[in-house]
Amino acid sequence: MKIGNRRKVLGIATVIIVVAVIAALALIKVPVWTSDGLESRVRADLRAIVDAAEMFHMATGRYPASLGELTSPLAEAGNEPLLESTIDRWSRPYIYRLVGGKPRVSCLGRDGLPGGTGLDRDLEYHKPDEEN
Questions:
Q1: pLDDT (tens digit, 9 = 90+) per residue, 115-128?
Q2: This model's pTM is above 0.85
Q3: If pLDDT is split at 50, 70 and 90, which confidence band does 33 have?
Q4: Are 124 and 64 a contacting pair, CB within 8 Å?
Q5: Which residues are paired to 123 by β-bridges?
Q6: In whole angstroms, how far apart are CA 64 and each of 61, 78, 82, 92, 102?
Q7: What number of CA atoms fall less than 13 Å from residue 55's CA on the CB side?
Q8: Partner residues linked to 103 by β-bridges
């Protein structure tokens, strides 16, 4: 084999190895990006549910007793529901409850069980108490 051909082969092999290493690193990083994106979307959903409960309160003078009231048409809102869906990213309903008379919403994460880490960890949202 001529020296020129060896250089071409080594050059091509080097490029293939570099591309393979970059691809492997990208695959390792993808789950982290995905979990961050999912967590951001779940947090946005939780905030939207609490905001819809606040709008329901402003329209009716009371907080909804369940999430179903937020997805049902509301006469005070022009017969439109305040939310399209109250289902989390893993196809389970978000958990809604009133604590101290204020709405609190949570998600049990990917595993649907209390506790956990990563995508399995619980997330919760409520409006902070306003200072007097």
A1: 999 889 999 999 98
A2: no
A3: very low
A4: no
A5: 107
A6: 10, 17, 11, 19, 10
A7: 18
A8: 98
Higher-confidence residue of 39 and 15: namely: 39
Structure tokens at 99: 């604590």
* Coil vs helix vs strand at 48: helix
Are the beta carbons of 109 and 122 closer than 8 angstroms?
yes
Instruction: Kindly list the structural domains of the chain, giving each domain's residue range(s) and its CATH number in brackets, ordered by start.
Output: 33-125 (3.30.700.10)
Q: Give the H/E segment covering residue 123.
A: strand 123-125
- Decide if 47 contacts 125 (C-beta within 8 A): yes
Residue that the structure tokens 């946005």 belong to:
44
pLDDT in tens, 64-88: 999 999 999 887 777 888 999 999 9
Enumerate residues 6+ apart whose C-beta is below 8 A from 16: none
